[in-house]
Design goal:
Blueprint: H1 2-27, H2 40-49, H3 51-66, H4 68-83, H5 88-114, H6 122-138, H7 141-156, H8 166-179, H9 198-238
């Protein structure tokens, strides 16, 4: 039962990513992003073009965000197995994961609010749009801690089959480095560091996706290995 629950929680990660992509990208139409330098009339026109489609896409996004929580839960369980009795970095990752869900949820609500009353003045719709995009891209602080905590635990894991191999730990740190420019969008309305730029959204999004699917793979592998280790004493006892 424990192994089955962990596997279900681990697969919630890809399900979350699929709902995020379908809702935010394909249905909502938020990628590619519009320019942060766009005026209020242009931003209002985006939401007025097809508000029901945008709202439904954001609803899928919000539903999908809930699936990140069981994924974070099983990541916490596996990290705690490595860290032991005083899992400081495991709990830090857990709190950062909860903050990461908030980072996803509140921008979604601001986008939804922008699409809710389309008779507002365009400047107010633009304000709500800014309130969504700015934390969605720039609020990297909760997520930056997650790969960092995983790398710390991975480097300290001296077992023959570590949860996070050493190469993955170096990759986690590099992913953190690639995510950091997202915070610079508060200084730019155009160019590669704006929220629609290469370093503003595309490289951090690719880095986050790499981390996400690699972590899912390592978790599923570790859970199956744990199941095999627990079955060995039972087989020996039966013999």
């Amino acid at each position: 039962m424990n192994v089955r629950s962990q596997l279900v929680a681990a697969w919630c990660g890809p399900a979350f990513a699929v709902l995020l992509g379908v809702g935010w990208v394909f249905v909502g139409g938020f990628l590619p992003p519009h320019s942060p330098g766009a005026g209020g009339e242009e931003i209002a026109a985006f939401y007025q073009s097809d508000p029901h489609r945008i709202r439904f896409g954001l609803l899928l996004f919000m539903w999908g965000s809930a699936l990140y929580l069981p994924f974070a839960g099983v990541l916490t369980v596996q990290m705690r197995r490595v860290e032991g009795r005083f899992p400081v970095w495991t709990y830090t990752q857990l709190m950062a994961s909860a903050g990461n869900v908030i980072t996803l949820t509140f921008p979604t609500l601001f986008w939804a609010t922008a699409a809710f009353r389309l008779d507002r003045h365009p400047d107010l719709i633009q304000l709500l749009n800014d309130l969504a995009w700015t934390p969605f891209v720039a609020m990297t602080s909760p997520f930056l801690l997650i790969p960092l905590c995983m790398a710390i635990i991975g480097f300290a894991d001296k077992s023959d089959t570590p949860l996070f191999p050493r190469w993955a730990c170096y990759l986690f740190l590099f992913i953190d480095f690639l995510l950091m420019p997202g915070g610079l969008i508060i200084f730019f309305k155009s160019g590669p560091f704006a929220w629609n730029g290469l370093f503003g959204i595309y490289i951090p999004l690719a880095a986050w996706g790499t981390w996400f699917f690699l972590t899912t793979y390592l978790l599923i592998k570790a859970i199956k290995r744990q199941a095999g280790e627990e079955c060995q004493p039972l087989s020996a006892a039966a013999s």
